[in-house]
From TrEMBL:
NCBIfam families for this protein: DapF
UniProt cross-references to PANTHER family, sorted A to Z: DIAMINOPIMELATE EPIMERASE (PTHR31689:SF0), DIAMINOPIMELATE EPIMERASE, CHLOROPLASTIC (PTHR31689)
Gene name as annotated: dapF
Pathway: Amino-acid biosynthesis; L-lysine biosynthesis via DAP pathway; DL-2,6-diaminopimelate from LL-2,6-diaminopimelate: step 1/1
Full protein name: Diaminopimelate epimerase
List of catalytic residues: C74, C198
Family assignment from sequence similarity: Belongs to the diaminopimelate epimerase family.
Localization per Swiss-Prot or TrEMBL: Cytoplasm
Biological role: Catalyzes the stereoinversion of LL-2,6-diaminopimelate (L,L-DAP) to meso-diaminopimelate (meso-DAP), a precursor of L-lysine and an essential component of the bacterial peptidoglycan.
InterPro entries given in the database record: DAP_epimerase_AS, DAP_epimerase_DapF
A GO BP annotation: lysine biosynthetic process via diaminopimelate
SUPFAM superfamilies attached to this UniProt entry: Diaminopimelate epimerase-like
Complex and partners: Homodimer.
Predominant localisation class: cytoplasm
Amino acid sequence: MQQTFYKYQGTGNDFVMIDNRQQTFDKNNTKLVSALCDRRFGIGADGLILLEHHDNLDFKMVYYNADGNESSMCGNGGRCLVAFAKQLGVIDDKAVFEAIDGLHHAIIDGDIVKLQMVDVDTIEKHENHVFLDTGSPHHVQFENRIDVFDIKKEGSRIRYGEPYNEAGSNVNFVKKVSDQIFTVRTYERGVENETLSCGTGATAVALAMHAINETTDNLITLQVPGGELQVSFEVENGLYKNVWLIGAAKLVFKGVI
Ligand SMILES: N[C@@H](CCC[C@H](N)C(=O)O)C(=O)O
């Protein structure tokens, strides 16, 4: 059977999108997902996302990393899925959908998609890094040589090392530009390499920088290799809430396999 797919990108974090409202996609086929995401033998992407029917909400998101395994939340993928839902006519300019970490609200205006992320109440502050879960697990640490740093080598060492081991964590390296602007490069678990952007990672960096008093702002710009993201939030008694991830999400091409 032929399968129509769409390729989307959000600040360079790219995804194969499939409309699976009719449940035609072979969801447990890890090899198929990784083959479609392969950059030489497949379409090429950091992940694959299924848009599925939901009884009460606009749609459901099912996210797979490029290695073919279903994973935790993908912020850029969620933003791209909202743009895809709009293109399919499933939504107009607002959406409420279910993902693995719960309900998400979103607003779309042209290419810009604002996605509400989960509230965060636990931010672990360690001597050299911060760890938090923004829908996906994120290790955040400063790296002033960020432009020349070997993200894949060091990211992989941290991702597979203690305390994360096989289950792993995404790893974000950060350089402060100003109180409102941070440069970020992310090693993504499940891609096992640096990606051009990571939405849950950008969110994690913004909250972490606030939690360790590197900023007092609640609208942070994150410069990532694929462009710019913004994260806004409110804090109440240590709870980060009303967290929004904001940035462009665009269709790259459509095809049939
Ligand atoms: N690209 C992502 C994060 C995707 C999930 C991650 N690879 C993991 O397994 O934790 C994003 O934009 O948030």
